[in-house]
Specification:
This protein has 313 residues and is an alpha+beta fold. The chain has a domain at 3-84 and 100-171. It has twelve helices and ten strands. It has a four-stranded antiparallel beta sheet, sandwiched between helices. The structure holds cobalamin and iron/sulfur cluster (SF4) (2 copies).
């Protein structure tokens, strides 16, 4: 058994399960990325997302071996986010119109690892990281050769664009690397920075001021919105796909026919009925949706704000 055989098996099985990309990366410390990240934190771009600045988590983020001492290499995966027709009244980002990917993606990865253990008659020690762990997922994806960091700060692949969810699996497997980094193909394009309603994209540094990003304002921010931020969110009530939608690398993708791990969730559509909903009914309606994390009082504020921006309140 060679690591090449193992890699090929993982690539084809990952594709079968709905991952469009599968690559492999070393888990050496991230030195250049550490500097970018610390500059970003020092400018307070993370706002109220205090978990991104926790000192113990920072050490793990920059050196994955601290997070997972058994680790020898990482499997880096990406799965497409389907596109949906826009709702008339409230805009919900497409990832949130699916069953919460924190449920579906780890389940698919468990299937991948189980299959691997059976196929190669071995035990794998591993840690699945999808958002929640202190891991630089985009930096891992660059290292695995899955794309480049666009001006929007999104990881972009020339064939699959940026409309994807990433996942990193730290493992004790010795998988061959390094992969060669993909070249930057943003060129002279600035569509994302021009289209962003809040002007929060720093196209030079390739980071964003999260405090002003609509995704942060509608999902992460806990405190009351100031009038300017409230106005900037427009009709958005959960997340924002604008910089994704305008990117030329996302055009012409037939996302409805693309295989994906994500599952559309038709039940979680915001409407007037939400205003009379009890906490128990809210839990039921948004049971497997990421919207549930917003909690009912803040969710209603998001809806009220969107109505106000339409001149309906
Ligand atoms: C916090 C967070 C947010 C914050 C801040 C986003 C941001 N851009 O920093 C908010 C709430 C605003 C947000 C919004 C969104 N998010 Co978010 N978010 C995260 C999270 C949890 C951490 C990101 C982070 O550390 N930011 C700090 C900055 C400094 O780090 P970074 O963006 O990773 O940048 C690094 C790389 O650019 C790297 N780098 C590596 N190589 C190179 C090379 C060069 C030349 C350069 C310049 C940099 C570079 O250096 C940087 C520092 O390490 C990640 C999951 C994770 N654990 O990584 C998801 C993640 C980045 N989010 C994701 C998504 C899908 C979104 C949204 C599209 C959701 C939506 N529809 O509303 C928006 C997009 C907004 C945007 N333009 O980025 C995906 C991105 C997938 C992709 N293709 O890139 C991730 C990876 C989640 C996932 N599991 O897939 N998010
Ligand atoms: S998600 Fe929306 S608000 Fe955030 S950077 Fe992209 S376009 Fe701007
Ligand atoms: S819209 Fe243009 S500048 Fe922005 S990430 Fe896409 S290619 Fe790069």
């Amino acid at each position: 058994m060679t690591s090449n055989e193992q890699k090929q098996w993982l690539e084809s099985e990952a594709e079968r399960l709905g991952f469009c990309l599968c690559g492999f990366a070393s888990i050496e410390p991230f030195e250049t990325e550490k500097k970018i990240y610390l500059d970003w934190l020092n400018s307070n771009a993370h706002g109220e997302m205090a978990y991104l600045a926790r000192p113990d988590a920072l050490e793990k983020r920059f050196d994955p071996r601290v997070l997972f001492p058994d680790g020898k290499s990482a499997i880096v995966l990406a799965t497409p986010i389907p596109s949906f027709p826009r709702h008339a009244r409230y805009v919900v980002a497409d990832f949130a119109r699916c069953v919460d990917y924190h449920e579906t993606i780890p389940a698919a990865i468990e299937t991948l690892i189980d299959g691997f253990q059976n196929r190669f008659a071995c035990r794998v020690s591993y840690k699945i990281c999808v958002d929640a762990a202190p891991v630089l997922e985009r930096a891992f994806a660059v290292r695995a050769g899955l794309g480049w960091i666009g001006r929007s700060s999104m990881l972009i692949h020339p064939k699959f664009g940026s409309k994807m969810i990433l996942a990193v699996v730290l493992t004790d497997l010795m998988l061959a690397f390094p992969a060669s980094a993909l070249p930057d193909r943003c060129g002279s394009c600035r569509r994302c920075a021009d289209a962003c309603p809040t002007g929060c994209i720093d196209g030079e540094k390739r980071t964003i001021d999260a405090q002003r990003c609509i995704s942060y304002l509608t999902i992460e921010r806990k405190s009351e919105l100031d009038p300017e931020s409230a106005r900037m969110t427009g009709a958005h009530v959960f997340g924002c796909d604008i910089c994704t939608d305008v990117c030329p690398w996302n055009q012409g993708r037939e996302t409805s026919r693309q295989r994906t791990v994500l599952i559309g969730n038709d039940a979680a559509i915001p409407d007037d009925a939400d205003f009379g909903i009890t906490p128990a009914e809210f839990k039921q309606k948004y049971a497997s949706s990421p919207i549930l994390r917003r909690k009912l009082p803040r969710w209603l504020k998001n809806l009220e704000n969107a109505d106000r921006n339409r001149g309906k309140r």
